[in-house]
Amino acid sequence: MKKNAEQSQRVPIITAQVAIVLLTLLWVQLAAPSSATGSVSAQPQLLDKIPTEYSEASGTTANCRYGVTVGPGETQIIPQIGAGAFYWFTSPYWPGPIPDNDAEVVHLIKTFQKKSGSMYLPEYTTNVPLDSALGDYIRNNPGDVWIVGNEVDRGPNPGQVTGGQGDMWPEMYAEAYHDIYYFIKSYDYSARVVNSGLVQVTPGRLQYLDKVWNAYRAKYGSVMPVDAWSMHVYILPEVHADGITPNGIANVALRTDPAIGKRESANDAQACSDPDVYCFAEHDDMSVFSEQVVAMRQWMKQHGQQQKPLMLTEYSILYPHEIDEDSCWLQDEFGNCFTPDRVSTFMVNSFNYLDGARDSSLGYALDDSRLVQDWFWFGVYPERVGDVSGLVKSDLSTLTLVGETYRDYVNAEPVSMNLIVERVPDATATTWEDNTATAKLSVRFRNNGNTAVNSPFNVTFYQDAAHTEPIGSATISPLVRGCALSSYVASVTWSGLTPGAHQFWVAVDSSNVIDESSPDKADNFGTGYVRVHKYGSLLPVIRL
Predict the structure, then answer these.
(1) How far apart are CA 167 and CA 254, in angstroms?
(2) pTM above 0.90, yes or no
(3) Which residues, listed in sequence order, are joined to residue 462 by a DSSP beta bridge?
(4) Cα angle, residue 138 at apex, residues 133 and 139 outer, rounded to 5°
(5) CA–CA separation, 227 vs 204, rounded Å?
(6) What is the pLDDT of residue 540?
(7) What is the C-alpha to C-alpha distance for residues 117 and 79, in angstroms, rounded to an integer?
(8) Cα separation of 449 and 372, whole Å?
(9) What domains are there in the chain, each with its CATH number?
(10) DSSP SS3 for 286
(11) Quick one: which of 90, 73, 89 has its CA closest to 396?
(12) How confident is the model at residue 385 (pLDDT cuts 50, 70, 90)?
């Protein structure tokens, strides 16, 4: 039915019933005026990097920088669009099969705070039992990524028990994270455990994260153990235009100060210049987008977490379009709609930024000081909320304009692999009398290219800096995934060691069989020491 001017003045309510993704049971109240005050703003312009070539054959390569959120039946397009990872919301158990390009699955264990009516109880629950069945699944999928909770900061959500968002006090989330982290690690120490992405990165959300961090340390006496950090980036108001009344579209983060929440614009275009206001028009503003990314990296640095990967596990355009002749469901403060063209422009701009954002003072050194290691578009088929951001049509196979933009951009990216030594730990050994000792040598390394290494290669340890006297080699044959998100270890033993210090050297891909993006492979080498102690007698000391 055609929406006339009178209808467009109504305040619609969108039910974000997306059971497989972030915004389950999010009720969004949006004004949809047919016109707005102030001068009309131009649509966002493309930044300087636009793909010019596309080869459909390259779609079989998984680019680990680019991920998508998926639901049932939505993974068949992953090889076509070149995505290297997918975030599976539905259940911690991925039913398979893995896409043809070996894209990596990211698991989610949902967490929720228990309630009695509107009263929050000091207990939590999860969407699956933390039992031996889940433990066996974790053990049988070593090294996988496990995210604990989804948007736990957003509430209150009346009546929600096991929906999409956690609705948890920060103190309760700290307890849930602790328990689930150690549960996962008890079955697979190599698993990568990641925090819940919050709705967005604003002062209120960072206050929530501070509360989680401090509550964890106060309760357990240690720093919160996180293998990689996660964030969501959306640009959504948190309080109403008066700056007092909660809640805006994103809600105020639970148990945080509403006074620091981002305000609604009240459809006043002039308010968009206020840094404390998040306008509809700013939903795809790259300046605000980059501010959130930098703010998260600054928080990580302040908390001693700079040298950890950062995953942008969800983002896109959530405001709907829904063409109806010459009208659209929502216009921003300048009279512009969130059309597929506009969303595609935002996608390219965000890819440009994320792929190029580096800062040696904030970024992850093992990934060439990148601010963000990988990013996940929401989603393949998000239905109502974010419907214009969907990559496929309702048949779950035909690409939309936005899906074609994703495919063309990712498949135009050059393939890169780059092995890098992360750490060569020193070793110790003990010898008896005049005997010699044997020590275990090891090296930890990563791949910070955008593509997994899937060909076997050798890691060789040497007795000399010239690499002419080998101690031994280890062959690496599994996938070595990229984006510096996973670490890998190679080990050999060194026999015949006498007491004292012995230096050794190591080369990753010592036979030079991998075509790496760093031609001289200077980052493939490392050195360490073995310290051999001679066994001696220990005598008791009597103190008078």
Answers:
(1) 8
(2) no
(3) 470, 505
(4) 95
(5) 24
(6) 58
(7) 46
(8) 13
(9) 110-355 (no CATH), 419-534 (2.60.40.10)
(10) helix
(11) 73
(12) confident
